[in-house]
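Q: Make up one entry.
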Amino acid sequence: MKPSFDHLNEPVARYARTDVPLLRHEATVQQALDLIRQQGVGERLIYFYVVDETDKLVGVLPTRRLLVSPLDKPLTDIMVPRVLAIPETATVMEACEMFVLYKFLAFPVVDAERRMRGVVEVGLLTDEMTAHPDEPEERQRLDDLFETIGFRVSEMRGASPWKVFRLRFPWLLTTIGSGIVGALLARLYEATLAHSLVLAFFLTLVLALGESVSVQSMTVTLQRLRASAPTLPWFLGALRRELGVAALLGLACGGLVALVVFVWQGSVLAAAAIGGSIVLSLGMACALGLGIPTVVHALKLDPKIAAGPITLAVVDVFTLLFYFNLGKLLLGPR
C-alpha cells in the first residue's frame, strides 16, 4: 500500500512489508541462502535482517555482503550489529524524515522490544514524489511534505527574507524574554554584585558553559528521537545517563574554574560560589537539553527550529538563579 500525503500521520507499520525472510543469528551464509531460496524475497530487497530466536532484531546484512561471503561463514561475523530501526508507533511522516536524514534505502520496523514487525523501503517517500513532478499541484504537495517533516524546500530554493523571518523569529522571542528576565534578576541581586565584583567577572563564562552543555545534550537527544519514539522508560533511562554525564562535566568544569578563581582572588568562598553554581547549572542544562526537545517532539512541533531557542532561554534563567542565589548566600553583604 502506498501512502498519500494525506496519510502522513498514520502508523508506518501499516505500510511495512512483511514478506521478507528473517535470518537467524546462529545460521551460516549457506543456511541463510537456503532459507531465502525457500521463502523468496517478494519484491526488491536491499538489506536482510538478522534476528534471534524471539525475532528480536540483532543485525542487518547488506545483500552484497551476503553474496560474496564464504558459505560456511556465520552471519554474526558479517552482519552489522548496530541497526537504526523505526518504532511501529512512528508515523509515516517520521519515517519519511528518517529516509531524508540518513539516506538509507530501507528501515526495519520494530516493536517496543525490538522484535521485527516488517520493513519499509525508500519508495514510501519517493513514489508520491516522482508521480507527476512537473505538475504545479504535485510540486506544491512535495513542498508541503518537506515542510511537514522539517525541511523547508522553499527556503532551500531561495525563499524571500520575509518567509525565513516568519519561520524563525517567533522562537527567538524566547531568547529575548530570557534576556529580559536576566536583566531583572541582575537588578534584584545588584547589591550582591556590587559587594563582590568577582561574580560579575565570571558571569559570562558560567552562562556560556550552561548553554554549551545544553546544546550538546539537545543534539544527542534529537538524534535519539529520530531513531526511536519517546516513551517514559526511554526518557527515564536517557535522564539517568544525562545526569551521570552532567555530574562529571559539572565537577570537571566547576573544579577547574573554582581553582582559577581561588588562585586569582585568593577567596575560598568565591571559588565555592562560582564552582558550585557551575555544577548545579550544568546538571540542569543536561536535564533541559533532554526534556525540552522531547516535549517539543511530543507536541508535533519542529524540534530542529523550536528546541534550540527554548532550551537556551530556560537554561540561562536557571543558570542565573543558581549563580546569583549561591553568590548571595556565600558572598553577599551580611
Summary: The first helix runs from residue 29 to 39. The chain has two domains: 10-88+105-121, 161-331. The longest strand covers residues 57-62.
